[in-house]
């Protein structure tokens, strides 16, 4: 759906499919416009050495553009040799999801979150966070249902959206064409209660005012409320089909 077909503050059509990888504790395929990201959560009964003996868990994320996700072809990155951009996105996803889980109650367990971009048309990092929360929520709730961990490990939902200023207008959920020509580009990560986890904003071609910043954040809030509803629906659907 092009911008001509939607209001500047209307995000692209969003679909979240739970459990595309049914052998895992939790997974989700998120599609926003033409961007598609496969998110998977794996759980290990151990933690990194620096966490051992603390009685707490840890969560780490990996992100990758699949070779066929872009034109020209994205080069496959090797483990331990990822680009600075990939490192930054991985850390963003990890920080965002750690804000959604109480790691002190899950025991010494490691949650690995893998986000693989199948098709990239803008907003891949924000889509990854949105889908990864669903995958993590499914994994946690199933562990709670089995009695592996106490209830209450999840705190609040987490979602993310891109916003920007394009041709002088504040717009929500930029596709690749909009993102590449935006005067201002921003990614916003938000908790269900409205608290901000992270705001990444840059004046790409011009500066922006405080009032524009407020409008950008208002647009992100509006879009994230829709995302939270879609996340809840996807989690409910996944748990109904496979409770444990």
How would you describe what is shown here?
The protein has 244 residues and is of the alpha+beta class. It has a domain at 3-155 and 225-241: GHMP Kinase, N-terminal domain (Ribosomal Protein S5, domain 2), CATH 3.30.230.70. Helices cover 31% and strands 28% of the residues. The chain is built from four helices and nine strands, in the order ββββαβαββαββα. It has helices at 84-98, 124-146, 176-181, 210-241; strands at 14-18, 26-32, 35-44, 58-65, 110-119, 158-166, 169-172, 184-191, 196-203. The strands form two sheets. It has a five-stranded mixed beta sheet with strand order 1-2-3-5-4. Helix 1 (84-98) crosses helix 2 (124-146) and helix 2 packs parallel to helix 4 (210-241).
Core attributes:
single chain, 244 residues, alpha+beta, Ribosomal Protein S5, domain 2, 5-stranded mixed β-sheet, 4-stranded antiparallel β-sheet, globular
Strand content: 25-35%
Number of strands: 9
The poorly predicted ranges are: none
**Biggest sheet: strands, sense, closure?**
5 strands, mixed
Radius of gyration: 18 Å
Global morphology: globular
Give the averaged pLDDT, no decimals.
93
- Roughly how many Å apart are the termini? 37 Å
Give the spatial strand order of the biggest sheet: 1-2-3-5-4
Question: Count of helices?
Answer: 4
How much helix is in the residues?
A: 25-40%
Order of helices and strands: EEEEHEHEEHEEH
CATH class of the domain at 3-155 and 225-241: Alpha Beta
Question: Which structural class best describes the helix and strand composition?
Answer: alpha+beta
Return the CATH architecture of the domain at 3-155 and 225-241. Answer: 2-Layer Sandwich
Within CATH, the superfamily of the domain at 3-155 and 225-241 carries the name GHMP Kinase, N-terminal domain
CATH fold-level label of the domain at 3-155 and 225-241: Ribosomal Protein S5, domain 2
């Amino acid at each position: 759906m092009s911008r001509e077909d939607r209001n500047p503050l209307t995000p692209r059509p969003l679909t979240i499919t739970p459990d595309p990888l049914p052998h895992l504790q939790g997974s989700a395929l998120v599609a926003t416009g033409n961007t598609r990201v496969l998110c998977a959560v794996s759980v290990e009964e151990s933690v990194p050495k620096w966490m051992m003996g603390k009685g707490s868990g840890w969560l780490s994320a990996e992100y990758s553009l699949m070779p066929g996700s872009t034109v020209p072809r994205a080069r496959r990155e090797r483990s331990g040799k990822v680009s600075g951009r990939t490192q930054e996105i991985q850390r963003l996803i990890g920080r965002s999801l750690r804000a959604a889980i109480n790691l002190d109650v899950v025991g010494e367990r490691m949650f690995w979150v893998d986000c693989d971009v199948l098709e990239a048309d803008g907003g891949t990092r924000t889509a990854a966070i949105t889908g990864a929360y669903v995958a993590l929520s499914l994994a946690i709730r199933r562990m709670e249902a089995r009695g592996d961990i106490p209830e209450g490990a999840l705190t609040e939902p987490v979602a993310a959206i891109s916003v920007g200023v394009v041709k002088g207008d504040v717009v929500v959920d930029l596709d690749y064409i909009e993102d590449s020509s935006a005067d201002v580009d921003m990614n916003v990560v938000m908790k269900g209660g409205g608290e901000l986890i992270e705001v990444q904003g840059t004046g790409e071609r011009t500066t922006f005012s405080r009032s524009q910043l407020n409008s950008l954040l208002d647009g992100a809030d509006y879009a994230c409320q829709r995302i939270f509803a879609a996340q809840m629906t996807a989690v409910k659907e996944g748990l109904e089909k496979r409770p444990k």
